[in-house]
Amino acid sequence: MHSFNKARQPGPVTRLLSCTEEERKNYKGMDLAPTLEVPSMSKHPKTGDWYPAINKPAGIVHWLKHSKDAENVDWVVILDADMILRGPIIPWELGAEKGHPIAAYYGYLVGCDNILAKLHTTHPELCDKVGGLLAMHIDDLRVLAPLWLSKTEEVREDKAHWATNITGDIYGKGWISEMYGYSFGAAEAGLRHKINDDLMIYPGYTPRPGVEPILLHYGLTFSVGNWSFSKLEHHEDGIVYECGRLFPEPPYPREVKLMESDPNKRRGLFLSIECINTMNEGLLLQHARNGCPKPKWSKYLSFLKSKTFAELTKPKLLTPPRIQTEPAKEGKEIDEYKRPYPKIHTLFSTECTTYFDWQTVGFMHSFHLSGQPGNITRLLSCTDEELKNYKGHDLAPTHYVPSMSRHPLTGDWYPAINKPAAVVHWLNHVDIDAEYIVILDADMILRGPITPWEFKAARGRPVSTPYDYLIGCDNELAKLHTRHPEACDKVGGVIIMHIDDLREFALLWLLKTEEVRADKAHYATNITGDIFESGWISEMYGYSFGAAELNLRHLISSEILIYPGYVPEPGVKYRVFHYGLEFKVGNWSFDKAKWREADVVNNCWSTFPDPPDPSTLEQTDDSLLQRDLLSIECARTLNEALRLHHKRRNCPDPNAVSNPKLDTTRDITTSRKLGRSSGNDSQESSEPKAKDGLFSTLRFWIILLWVFSGLGFMLVMLAVCSRYAGNGSSKGKSIKNRRRAYTGFLKTSSRDRQTRKSDVSL
Questions:
Q1: I need a labelling partner for 136 at 20 to 30 A (CA). Which of 129, 256, 394, 609 fits?
Q2: Residue 45 has what DSSP assignment?
Q3: In degrees, to the nearest 5, what angle opens at C-alpha 226 toward C-alphas 220 and 232?
Q4: Helix extents (H) in 67-137
Q5: CA 478, CA 135: separation in Å to the nearest integer?
Q6: Please, which residues bridge with residue 398 across strands?
Q7: What span, in angstroms and rounded, lies between the C-alpha atoms of 401 and 389?
Q8: Exposure b/e, 177-190, CB count within 10 A at least 16 = b
Q9: Cα(257)–Cα(654) distance, integer angstroms
Q10: Model's pTM, two decimal places?
Q11: Is 631 helix (H, G, I), strand (E, B) or coil?
């Protein structure tokens, strides 16, 4: 816990504490870490087998089922208690993706290559020799965790194959069954690991040249000169609760320098003393929290509190990791070097309209499912007037931009210019720590991560998708609007660009868009490729001509984006749907332009017409079948996003009865407007009538109660008035009282009207 805080690891941390009820009664360490208590499985509840290591997967299964944190995170880092963090472990920076967790290499798991894997997984070829450090997407963990537990039980029970030559376990006791449970469970789940052999090191080992490990795993005995440490020697040690006690102090750094002349071996010794010194520093702080008296001065305590030690143990940053995506073969060294995965930031631009709001809901839903690493920002272009009434502020992380739909100088109405204008605004108003920017459109659905390392983007070499209809790159349009027409690439849609390139390029993108938009003499289809000849694709040419001015040549990939309705290339796993055009499946169709005025975001449970069921599709032509399946996937993702959005907005149960007639009528009318009523209108509208009988008696008694209350009130008032009359009360007083009564009635009536108005509005 001390090293976790010192390393500045982002996000919350949870200790999964496995205890029996008897152990819990006497346990004193509940305050040592944020804790989720887990029923102990050290002694298996069914077999009686004593195997405490099974508590790890069992604890994770329990956490997934019972922790609120598990509902609010995208990435999970799983570590062991006998570890010291030296720097933050951030999954997306390490290159973790959905379906591709990061893990450390455990080469001794030889069972991945022999009969053990064949016995315990249907996919032995997917068995990775990994463990120790795990960083994965929460969705992958949900699939893996129960398999991890069940495969651990399975391997643990397979005593016939505990031999060292099969498992690699030098004790031959099945102690590493949990490690195989993980590898076999991951193989069953189809997870392929990115294996990083440089993040974690055992103290006592020598790090590779140039490598700065960020995790120390002190599971083995290690020594520096005549000093040594073994965690097993402290198995029953109550050192946490004994004031003033620390682990034996190791040699000082200056002494270590004299021990070893080889600089790399010396670094290994420094890591060993750093490990134990960090643990002792943590013990000192814990003793202070326990209320222990301040320890007496000593040379060692002075060192632990010194600036020298603070400098030596400040958080470490990642060094270029060596990653392999295939399981390591026996005896094969992992020596493929790769640079650290850079930070990514995803942008998409929208406007203050319900048309863009439903696109945003679909986009954000798919973004979270895709495993796209890094942060995301919606560039929201609005006028001040539009912002006053805008309801969609919470739909996405947002940067607000002044609208340029109506050009401030020319008065030209061209909303597409907001895209480059918003990017320029964002660059000038936000502190950006990402190295690469991915720019997408709101009318897209992500199916997988879009990363610069996969598609080979680099400084001076952005990546994009082909827009072959931009024929102006090949004719006089390019010659008119760029000095380097030969550098004009027909690209758009998806952009992956280095931040330095984007800073140089963004303003040119905006200026060239204005320039092409103003060149009405060249709007013709044979020049621009725009079938409407309206200059609507000026922004696309603005991008291509601006990039040409800087000689930015794109890597053009046709495997990133597909339009629903287009026939896919066999074997290509497209990362983005761009539903900018109408697409059809049989008699069903979807055209985003027809939903320009529909408010499906703010009308509860509004969705688009459901596409056909895949089982009804023709199976004769596989290419057409794949086309239709992709179209159905796109439409279903949009509708699923809307349903989840309405659920988050706490929309009432769509199956519940709506009491006010006005609400029922309004809901049905809305459904008809959105194309969702079909043959169900009669059923939906008749349901409230069927339920009316349940409440008719109740309404009768309520009305009767009000009648009797009114009569009682009148009788009381008559009695009061008669008494005043008998006492000779003046006429003026009677009039005054009547005025007061009338004024009070007006106020009550006003409140009633307000109440009725609020009821209707609800």
A1: 394
A2: T
A3: 30
A4: 91-94, 115-120
A5: 48
A6: 378
A7: 16
A8: bbbbbbbbbbbbbe
A9: 72
A10: 0.50
A11: helix
Q: Say whether 493 sits in a helix, a strand or coil.
A: strand
614, amino acid identity: P
Residue 316: closest CA among 281, 276, 274: 274
Strands 215-217 and 83-85: antiparallel
CA dihedral 558, 559, 561, 565 (to 10 degrees): 90
- Any idea which of 196-210, 343-357, 734-748 has the lowest mean pLDDT? 734-748
Distance CA 495, CA 505 (A): 13
Cα–Cα distance measured from residue 560 to residue 569, given in angstroms and rounded to the nearest whole number: 11
3-state secondary structure of 607: coil
Give the angle 129-134-135 at the CA atoms, nearest 5°: 130
Q: Is 510 exposed, middle or buried (0-12, 13-18, 19+ CB in 10 A)?
A: buried
At residue 15, the pLDDT reads 97
Number of residues that make up the chain:
762
- 162 and 172 in contact (C-beta within 8 Å)? yes
* SS3 category, 76: strand
Q: Where are the alpha helices (DSSP H) in 649-680?
A: 661-673
Where do the DSSP E strands lie in 154-226? 194-196, 200-201, 215-217, 222-224
Residues 6+ apart with CB under 8 A from 315: 6, 7, 8, 86, 87, 88
Per-residue pLDDT tens digits for 395-432: 999 999 999 999 999 999 999 999 999 999 999 999 99
Provide the 10 A C-beta neighbour count for residue 534. 12
Kind of pairing, strands 398-402 and 375-382? Answer: parallel
Query: Six-digit token pair at 103?
Result: 């893990």
Distance CA 466, CA 468 (A): 6
**What is the identity of the amino acid at 171?**
Y
Q: Specify which residues 402 forms β-bridges with.
A: 382
Q: Which helix (H) or strand (E) holds 35?
A: strand 35-39
Eight-class DSSP state of 198: S
- Residue 291 and residue 582: Cα distance in Å, rounded? 70
The closest alpha carbon to 150, from 188, 115, 112, belongs to 188
